[in-house]
Every structure is written in structure tokens, then in C-alpha cells.
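Inputs:
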Amino acid sequence: MRERAQRRRRRRPAAASLILAAAAASGVLAACSGPASDELVWYINPDTGGQAAIAKRCSTDEYTIKVQELPQAADQQRIQLARRLAAGDPAIDLMSLDPPFTAEFADAGYLADLPEDLVTKLRAQSLKGSVTAATWNGKLVVAPFWTNTQILWYRKSFAKKAGLNMTKPVTWDQIIQAADKNGGRVGVQANKYEGYAIWINALIAGAGGTLLTNAEKGADATITIDSPAGKAAAKVIQTLAHSKAAQPDLSVSQEGQVLAPFQSDRGAFQVNWTFVYGTYAGSPTAKDLGWAMYPRTEADKPARPPLGGIGIGVNSHSEKVGKAMKAVACITSPENQGIYASTDGNMPASAEGYKQPELTKKYPADLLALFQESVNAAAPRPATPYWSDVSSAIQSSWHPPSAVNEGTPAKSQKFIEDVLQGRRLL
Amino acid sequence: MSTDAAAADAVRTADSPAKRPHKSDRAVAENRLGMKLVAPAVILMLLVTAWPMLQALYLSLFRYRLTQPDDREAVGLQNYLTVLGDSLFWKDLWNTVLIMIVTVAVELVIGFAFAMVMHRIVFGRGVMRTSILIPYGIITVVSAFAWQFAFSLNNGFVNAWFSWLPWIDSDTNWFGDHWHSMFAIMASEIWKTTPFMSLLLLAGLAQVSEDMIEAAKVDGATWWQRLWKVILPNMRSAIMVAVLFRALDAFRIFDNIYVMTRGAQDTESMSFLTYRQVIEQFQLGMGSALSVLLFLMVLILATLIVKLFRVNLAQARGEG
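Outputs:
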């Protein structure tokens, strides 16, 4: 009796495994259906619907553009796309790419070459900063679609109280001092995330330095963060972190977290992207909202604001590269850039885009001029296939901001070099 | 959940006395049939597990990045030396071991209490057993989110309910520093997996002969003595299986950390470190080296637990 029971028990796993194997095999077969031949699939970063609207406008009799949404966080977008592109997935045609991983994708051969005439057109229409962010090894690898930049947003009443002349360029020291002495706060992004690396990059560029040179050497690039410019950047962060002008949640603050404190009585300054204007529109803060060029790290050197945005890339494994290129030309047309900026608050990558009536009706002329000036003065993050390593290594060695001191740049330089050479874990 | 089935099976036969079966013709034939029946599963297992494992072993000898396929370079054991020489690895290993020891210990105690309740209860047995088992039916990611919300500074209830405790007040930021974060992660892990532990222990408890307990009672043994001298020694194999399965599971903790802190505040585990190397940084070489090390550690851990409980697994299964 017991033996029979045991036999029955032994047989069951084998039968189950056969069923499992059959199920797995049928699943593999079922998964092999791609998109229709007249359908272009565009992987977009989440927005408020502007890219889907453009996809509809740019669909023709020849093809329909279908959008697929990527995860919210930029690093997750990178992971999902890179994994699929590395496997040669042809089900992706168009992609909305963030500048920090554009170089990585281009270097790995994931992006199809843009045709000559499209490159010529894009170079002619785009702002200088937008072109820089879309270039790897001297070649335009994605089509600049929209370009983001940070400026200094301030409360007019506070600047007046502090006696700060905002028509002239201001330095980080000036605004920190002004906020510290008058009970104000300076909003920055200093959480352990990409935004913090962006801030550090802007501070170093503002002091005339760079994070690294010889980026084309990949892992053997020369790290130059341990320099007088690096020390100047560390000084700014150290000063802010130890002053009363710092937000209480400085070490976890991101773009969104600085918005509400800015509206409070202690709101004074914040550096943030272009979307801020739309966020405060209609609120009591709107009347008191002032804007100026990004603060200088050193009084005698021009500010180098951060640069962001999206470029449109075409998958080199797509079976519809020709159609996809036509779609790119339509998506990145100045008209569409202007409409997109007016609906989603993401500013155009071209001067022509800034002239679209939908946009000029919604934003003050001096603000639009400032955005363009800021894009052209901006210091993009270094284009290197190893940016995500460099960025994470910077975040590890410069976080929390209250621990930053004169020795941080040297420590950080050593750590980045070790990480790139595979001598340290990240 | 094949591991659960295997665990239940192991417990079921764990306490049967080791009888050495004589090899009759029938037994030999049955054995042969059994091998034939299990062969497809073994081949499939080899295809889907052994091959990736060998591949990982091979990749771990290279400096290889998914997005830089041309830079692939054989570096021998360099990846292992880098990993073993890095403070981050040791910190994450310490976190993992700490989480494993604390959660398994707490689960063993609570799980045993639950098993006793499930075993002894007379009224509402079905309801009681079901409600104890519910957390185990919830997906780990969902339970991690639920606990993250519970501990959240803005919309959680933990701070409000427990503010009478001296070390908790309304602005205790549970994800703001190392120990608070570790506590939240462990609480979620314990809540979710205690039912599994109690299920395995219940199976062991059912094997303890009532006659022996009766005899001990007649001999004048107190409740405490009966527990330590009769019940626990007789379910040693069940406890071993429960601890082994839970310890190995806990050692691979990932979901709770991913959802609750994403490794911030130094709460990374070994699995999380491996995930970051392979998935986030595309470092296939370094990540594979970490995976191999993780595998070896799990192996050592399993051996240690088996040795510690002095149970012969083959004997426990009644195979002889």
C-alpha cells in the first residue's frame, strides 16, 4: 500500500514537467509575432500626452506611428531599452532618448545613422546646445526634439528685500549669502540621483573645468574632477549645506521637492528646469516669480547651466529604418516642437520652434529668450559611453552634501578612475 | 513553487525510521522506471539551469560590458579579486547575513507558535489556518509596497499607532537612516514568510506521536519538559528543513529592498549588488563573478545548516 502510494508520488513530477515543457514551448511560439509592417513603434518617455498627439499628426498613409511608454525614471528607461537593443529587438523603431545615454547607445551601435539631408536640416534648425547634446564622436546621432535647461528662479519680493540686483549675473555665493542673512532658502537637487551629478557638473563647468576629457577613449578617459574648478564646486556645495539657506531635506531633495518650499514664506531661490513656470501659473507665487540666468560659480566666469531634453533615435535593428527617418523629420519639425512646448512645457530644440505662436502666446518673451540663451551657454554632461558609471561614482563620493569638503574632488577622482578600470565595485 | 512541494515532501518522510530496503527485483525495476520517468525533467533542468550557470562561470573570467562588446577582455580571476577586495562587497554581505539571521530566528519562534495553534486548535480550525497562511499568498512585491506605505512618513500608520513608544514619534523617517530602514525591510520579510515556516513546522508537529507525549505526561514531565525533551527532538528534521529553506531564501533577499529603499542607506543585499552590476551597469563579467560567489555562499550555507542539525538528508528521506 505504502509502496503504491510512493510510486504514484514519484510519477507526478515527471508528468508535471512534461506539461510544463509543452507549455513553455507553446509560449515561445506564441511570442513570435511582431508589429504590422506599416506600423512604426515609438518608445517615449512618459509625458502628458504631447508625444502621442505628435505620433497621430505624423502618421501618414504609408505608416502609422504607435507610441509605447517607457518607465518614468531615466535610468529605468535606459535599462529597458539597452537590454532589448543589445538583443537586436526589431520591434522598436523610434526612441525618445535622454542625453546621458545617447553616447552609450551610439557607441554600442544601437542607433541607425541619420541620413545626410536630415542631419543638414537638423544642424541648421537646432540650437547650439541641443546639437552638442545629440553628438557623439563628432557625429549627430539623434535628432534634437526638445531641449531642457535650468535657470535661476527667484521670488522678486525676496530679491528686493535682500537688495540683490537681479538684472546682473549673480554668483552662488551671493544668493546663498542673501538667503542666509534674510531667512530665505535656496532650492537645489542634492538627492543621491542623476540630478545631483547634473548640479555638480554645472558647478564645475561654471568654474571653467570639466569632469573628464578624452571621452572617446571610453574607460581610459582622463578624469579631471580633481582641479581648482572641482574644488570651487565643492566649496559652493559645502557653503550651502552648512548655511541656514539649505533646505532641511537637502540630502533627499529632487526637482519636485523644491517647488512647495519656494512658495512658502522662506522661499527665495531655486535652480530648476523650464517646467517651473507652468507649475506656478495661476498660483499666488506667479506674480512674484522672477527668472535669471543660472548662478555663476566664480564671479568672473560665465555660468554654464545644466542641459537636458530628448533626442529621437532610430533603432539600427529596425526593419523600417527608411520610414522611421521620415517620421523623425516630422516629429522634430519646429512646428511640432513649438506645439509640444506649449502643451507639455518641454522647450523646443530650435530657434524656429520658439517662434511658434502657440508657445509665444503662453510664455513671456523675455523668458523664452532666456531659455534659448541658457541652452546655448549650457554645459552638457560629458558625452561618454560610461556616463552612468561616472555619474553613479560621483553620487557615491559627493553624497551627502553635508560631507562635501575640499578633499572630495580628489577622493572622487580616484574612485571614478578605479570604477572605470574595474578596480572597484560601484 | 517546486521548492515548497519538495519541502513538504521532505518533511512528510523526514521522521520515518531508516529501514534499509532489500533490493528485490521489483525494487530494481521500480528504480529503473523511476529514472526513466524523471529523465525528461532532469534534461530540461540541465538545459535551463546548468547551461546558464556554466555560462556565468565562463563570463566571470572576462571584463565584459553589454554595451561595449568589442572591449571584451579575458582577465582571469581579476573580477573575483576586485570583488573580494572591495569594502562594498563585505558591507553588503554583512547586511545579508544579518537579515538572514534575524528574520529566520524571529520566524522560527513565531512560526512555531503559529504551528502549535494550528495543530492544537479545536474550534474554527479552518478559519484559523487560512488566516495564518494569508500573508504567504501575497506576492512579495505587493507586501513590500504595503509595508512601505505603512512605514511612510506621509501616509503611513506606524508612526501614528506607535508614537507612545519613546523612540518613535510622528516624524520618525523610517527610510532616512540605516537601522530604521533595515527594521522596515526585516518586518516586511518576517510578516510575509512566517506562514511558510509555520506550515513546515506544522507538518513536523503532526509527525510527533501523541503516545510519546502521553507517556511523558504520565511520567510527570511538565509542559516545558515535554516541549524540549519530546516534541522538539522528534521534529528535528522538520526544523532543519524549515530553517534550511528559509535561510537560503532569506539569503537571496531582493524584492523588499528593491521596493522599499532601492539600496539607499546602505541597505543593499548580495542579490541587490549583483542586480546592480548586471542589470543596471551591464557589467556582465563582474556581475557573473558576484553570481558565482553568491552561489558558492548558498552552497556553503546549506552544508553548514545540514551539518549543524546533524541530519542525514538521505536518511531523512527514507532512502537509506
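Remarks. Residues 77-316 of chain B form a domain with the MetI-like fold fold (CATH 1.10.3720.10). Chain B touches chain A at residues 9, 30, 34, 37-38, 40-41, 44, 63, 66-69, 71, 75, 78-79, 82-83, 86, 88-89, 176, 264, 273, 276-277, 279-282, 286 (CB under 8 Å).
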